[in-house]
Amino acid sequence: MAHKVFLLVCALIQLSTAAVEVPGKLVKSSSDGPFVAFAAATEPTCDGVSVYTTCKDCNNVLVCLGSTQSTKNCTAATPSTPFCVNGACSATYDSVAGCTPSGVACTGVGFYPDAKNCQIYHYCEGVDEESSVYECPPNYVYNAETTLCKQKIYATDCVTVKCDENKIFVSYGTSKKYYAFCQFENNVATSIQLLKCPDNCNFDGNSCVFKCPGTGNYAHADPVKYYQCYYSGAVLTFMTQSCPTGKNYDKDLRVCVTPKTTAAAPTIIE
Question: What Gene Ontology cellular-component terms does the record carry (predicted)?
């Protein structure tokens, strides 16, 4: 009996600890500019005799083959392990060598998980801008539902994108909010873009589908349209409505309004 109580207490402590979520640390700001790989005082070279590997920079492995040498770019060859650490491609970067993870080209605004590294996440300020990069503490992984870092208890807590050449879009774990587009070259995923469904939309495996959160009007991706949610019997359903000509839907007022125009600055004649 005492043994069972002890196990129960341990389980409760573990669950309590796991429930604590913390913010990540900013490791690269979008204002820092493009990622720059570390540069050694003397660029690594082969000794001309031995067979071994070493890191040429943050993303390239220098392969020494006796009197010859070659370079392997981890980012291009193995996108899931884009960094070079101790002469091999790795999913994690070598911070001791001065490496930092690269930002991504933003597809929207807000927080986004990293496609390949569950300890990394991104914050985007605008479409097509470079993201700021955040890193979770050791033994923590990013939780896309809360935009915080949670303790890694199980292997499944680490969520990454699993590309499928037979699909246009793929899910990000079990998320209904995030999904991804993978580009392939020679059967290898060469780039992955994380995408996010609009508010009140869920990814169904193929596209983002609107789901009524309640009755009333809700914003549509097209500014001149809106969703009108209502009950048909016991089923909550919706219709897509269009605003009158010359009006846009205001998601705060939840009605169609005439867009505000900005008056031109007066011309000063000297």
Answer: extracellular region
Other Cβ atoms closer than 10 A to 63:
17
Q: Which pair of tokens denotes residue 24?
A: 């990540």
The answer to whether 44 touches 60, Cβ cutoff 8 Å, is: no
pTM for the model = 0.73
Of residues 238, 112, 96, 240, the one with CA closest to residue 181: 112
pLDDT digits 0-9 by tens, 224-233: 999 999 999 9
Distance CA 13, CA 152 (A): 15
Q: Which residues of 189-201 are buried (b: 16+ CB within 10 A; e: fewer)?
A: bebbbbbbbeebb
Phi, psi for 69 (deg, rounded to 5)? -150, 160
Q: Cα separation of 85 and 101, whole Å?
A: 13
**Token pair listed for 2:** 């005492």
